[in-house]
Amino acid sequence: MALLPFYIPGKKRIKVVIAGGGYAGLAALTTLKRFAPDTDITLIDPGDQHLKITHLHETFRYPLSDLQVPFSTLEERFGCRHIKASLAVTDELLRQWQDNRYLAVGDEFIEFDYLVIAMGAESRQAELTENVLTLQHFMQKTGPELLVECLKTNEQNQQIISVVGAGATGIQFLFEIRQFLSGQKINAQLQLIYSGDRVLTQFPQGFDTYVQSCMQDMRIKGVPNARYHGQAGDQIQLEDKETGQLYELPSDLTLLFLGKKQKMVMSANLFGQAVVSKQTLSNIFIAGDCSVYESLGSNVQSAQSAVRKGKLVGRNILRHSGLLAILEPYLHHDIGYVVNLGPVDAVGWLVTEGNIVTGIPALTIKELVEAQYDLLLRGIDTYVV
User: Fold this and answer.
1) Is the separation of the CB atoms in 41 and 33 below 8 Å?
2) Number of other residues whose CB lies within 10 A of the CB of residue 117
3) Spatial separation of the C-alpha atoms in residues 90 and 263, rounded to whole Å
4) Which of 5, 8, 91, 115 has the most crowded CB, counting CB atoms within 10 A?
5) Do residues 314 and 27 make contact, with C-beta atoms less than 8 angstroms apart?
6) CA torsion angle for 258, 303, 169, 122 (degrees, to 10)?
7) Which among 104, 358, 348, 41 is positioned nearest to 203, based on CA atoms?
8) Which of the two residues, 351 and 338, has the higher pLDDT score?
9) CA distances from 347 to 191, 195, 204, 254 (A)
């Protein structure tokens, strides 16, 4: 058992319920088991496996199973229990759970000492047609399967594939698709449609400069300042952001990456404890994309922030249950971020946002970060607090 500063265990074996088996939920689970292996943990999630969702673009190169970790495997590895169910959350329920220290899942009442809400956020939805794909489709099938199904493989004329959304997800899919099309010698033109005047707007200007250069080299068409309105047949319907004029462009297949939509934004104090109507619920913690911490730490919706919040929550649950009850504030800020541009290129920043790295150095950084998370799922924590 690893040593956790300011944690002196009490005599009682604590019970923890974690709602959500994503990055934050599993970071909390593995942290609890690292510092207190006898913690009784129940994981509630509607799925059968944890999905490394930020890697879905890699299914153009690897099987989907490489990104999945069955909850049954985690049950065996960490001695926890998984219940396949969804958990509705409201402010009233949060207060009720704090008072009662149990919750109902189906016909079962589950007692807990601490509850972790780590249910994440869902993708923004739009009206779908046969030739429109979203991130949800890639959770079920690999990229090659979906493209082969949707494209007219016997078509002699050049087909057009549109990627809507120039955030990290859209950009990573864009370049993976370009590499796949080239490797399979599929006659198709790629176009990137985005509502701003540059791509990756959440990152420094240098990201846009590098990505635009790569797009030009690979003959990927950019369509800036365009809002997506829908798909009709083989035409994508757009609105010029500056003039409001509606227009259409040819698109045989459209991939929508419209960003995340939070089902419920929940407030937490600087220690990760839920705050409802200015009341701190000391035994309920919030982590991941559904959480906004009242602290100086990063509230960016990213896997990095979700993992750091989950780890903090795990540590603070143990401290709160111990004899000292000295909690740790959330102060994490990302020290880097890398966006893949296909299998052999990337762009990112390290230490400071002005320090932009590209190519093999950027790929190396990304692989190291990803290896850290893979080790965490095996119970080996190499993160620096």
Assistant:
1) yes
2) 27
3) 11
4) 115
5) yes
6) -30
7) 348
8) 338
9) 20, 21, 11, 25
270 class by beta-carbon count within 10 Å (0-12 exposed, 13-18 middle, 19+ buried) = middle
Written as one letter, the residue type at 267 is S
Helix (H) or strand (E) holding 11: none
d(CA 286, CA 119): 9
> Residue 287: which of 67, 99, 32 has the closest Cα?
32
Question: Is residue 375 within 8 Å of residue 384, measured between CB atoms?
Answer: no
CA–CA gap between residue 63 and residue 157 (Å, rounded): 30
Assess whether pLDDT exceeds 80 at residue 292: yes
Q: What mean pLDDT comes out for the span 228-240?
A: 94
Question: What is the predicted pLDDT for the residue at 263?
Answer: 62
Chain mean position to CA 28: 15
328: which 2 tokens?
């740790």
- Of 17, 16, 259, 23, the closest CA to residue 120 belongs to 23
Instruction: Write out the two tokens for 381.
Output: 């924590």
Ordered DSSP codes for 216-265? HHTT-EEE-SEEEEEEETTEEEEEETTT--EEEEE-SEEEE---EE-S--
What SS3 class is residue 108?
Answer: strand
Give the N- to C-terminal CA distance of the chain in Å, as an integer: 17
Q: Is the pLDDT of residue 152 over 80?
A: no
3-state secondary structure string, 280-300?
Answer: EEEEEEECCCCEEECCCCCCC
Strands 40-45 and 81-84: parallel
For the entire predicted model, the pTM comes to 0.94
Which domains are present in the chain?
15-121+262-333 (3.50.50.60), 125-259 (3.50.50.60), 335-385 (no CATH)
Separation between Cα atoms, residue 326 and residue 319, nearest integer Å: 6
What was the pLDDT predicted at 154?
Answer: 52
How many CB atoms are closer than 10 A to CB 135? 21
Query: Would you state the pLDDT for residue 39?
Result: 97
